[in-house]
Amino acid sequence: MTFSLINRRVHLFLGLALIPWLFMYAASSVPFAHTPYFERREAAKNLPLWSVRLEQPLDVAVPDEPAAQREWGRTMLASVGIQGTNFGVNRQSPTQVNVYSYSFWTSTQVKYFTDRKVVRVEDRRFRWDQFLTGMHSRGGFDQEGWLQDAWGVVVDLVQVAIVVWVASGILMWWPLRAHRRWGALAIGAGVLSFALFVALL
User: What pLDDT band is residue 84 in, cutting at 50, 70 and 90?
Assistant: First the structure.
C-alpha cells in the first residue's frame, strides 16, 4: 500500500468521522454571529426565559475562599435536589450568590440572598440557539466526572483530526499538476481574507 493511498484513506475516513462535529460547529456559529436576530425572535414570543421552581428560607454561611465556594455550591445544589451536573459559583453582589447548573439540554440557577436568608431556584426555558452555542463553547477539564473529561478529550482529538484532514488534503492536491494553480488560488484567498480580518478588526 503506497503512502498516497494511505493518505487518501485517512482523508476520506477522517472526513466521515468529522461530519457531526463540523456540522455542530458550523450550525452553532449562526446564533453566535446573529445574536440580535435570535433575541428578537425570543422577545416576540413574550415568554419568560426563567421560571421559579421554588423559593424558601435558608440560613447558611457563604465562604470567602474560591475553593470553599465551589464545595459550598455543590452543597447548595444537593440541598435543592440537583446532583451530578456541571456547575459554577458566582458572587453577583455582596448580598447575592448564584450557583449555575447546566447541561446541553437544561440550565438551572440557584440564587442565595444573604441579606434575606432566602434561596430561589430558577429553571431556564429551552432554546435551540443556546443549546447550539453551549455545545460550541463547552470544553476544558474544569468539571468533575469522567464524562466531562471525555468530552474535553474528544474535542481535543477533533481539533487534531481537523489539522490532519487539512494536511492530507494538501498532500492530495499537490501532485495534481493540472490543479496546482487553482489550489494555490484557493489557499491564497483563504489566507489573505483571514489575515486581513485579523489585521483590521
Answer: confident
DSSP codes of every residue in 42-87? HHHHT--SEEEEEEEE------SSHHHHHHHHHHHHHHTT--S-EE
Q: Which of 75, 95, 72 is nearest to 83 (CA)?
A: 75
State in Å, rounded, how far the first CA of the chain is from the last one: 47
Of the candidates 124, 144, 172, which is a domain's last residue? Answer: 124
Of 144 and 58, the one with more pLDDT? 58
Distance CA 84, CA 137 (A): 20
Residues 6+ apart with CB under 8 A from 10: 164, 168
In a shared domain, residues 101 and 69: yes
Kindly state the DSSP code that residue 140 receives in the 8-state scheme: S
φ/ψ of residue 184, rounded to 5:
-65, -40
Percent of the chain with pLDDT over 70: 100
Do 37 and 68 share a domain, yes or no? no
Written as one letter, the residue type at 34 is H
pTM (2 decimals)?
Answer: 0.84
Which range of residues forms the domain containing residue 65?
50-124
| Cell numbers for 130 | 443556546
Last residue of a domain, one of 124, 156, 178: 124
Domain count within the chain: 2
User: How far is Cα 112 from Cα 56, in angstroms, rounded to an integer?
Assistant: 10
**Single-letter amino acid, residue 137:** S
